Amino acid sequence: MSSSLAKNTFGKRKVGMLLATSVIGLSLTAPTVFAQAKKTTEGTETKTEAAAETSSTSPLKIGFVNTEKILRDSAPAKEAQDKIETEFKKRDEELQKLANNLRSKAEQFDKNAPVMTDAERTKAQRELADLDTDLQRKRREFQEDFNRRRNEAFSGIVDKANAAIRDIAEKENYDLIVQDAVTVSARIDITDIVIKALDKK
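The line above is the sequence of OmpH family outer membrane protein; the predicted structure tokens follow.
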């Protein structure tokens, strides 16, 4: 698809808009400090030191997930993208025909305008304006329908990704997993792990 519309529609697009700023806080149950009471040989109760150290002495385990990458590179996302593009291919081709027709008529008008009467020129300009308005309306409707369909498909993928993230957090004892950050160390990026988990489902 060669037009700017096709590039905007079917080119590499940023699809992480769906949950780019969401954060999943997974607070895992931490050991609680408590005082133990025990009977002495004389039958009196005394309080002992805590049986376990507080969770604050343990390092916080944090992970990062790049939602945009999941919605671009995971198998379910690629499959959904291909399906949507196939669904909208015919409408995109129709828009291409309308755009080519408008361009052809505009070129013809530019060529013939000098020899046209004022009435002919006004009529041709009105026809071009009507064609352009119709094309812009159909492009806008196309984009709205495409975005709606894409959001529907990707919302399911996001739900599956969040479920996978929760499973990983529980199994690997993460205290917090974030999906948006200004700067991230590769050491805590678990995006590829999440993608692998999604691809297996």
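Note on the example: Strands lie at 23-24, 37-39, 45-47, 62-64, 176-178. The CA atoms of residues 27 and 175 lie 5 Å apart.
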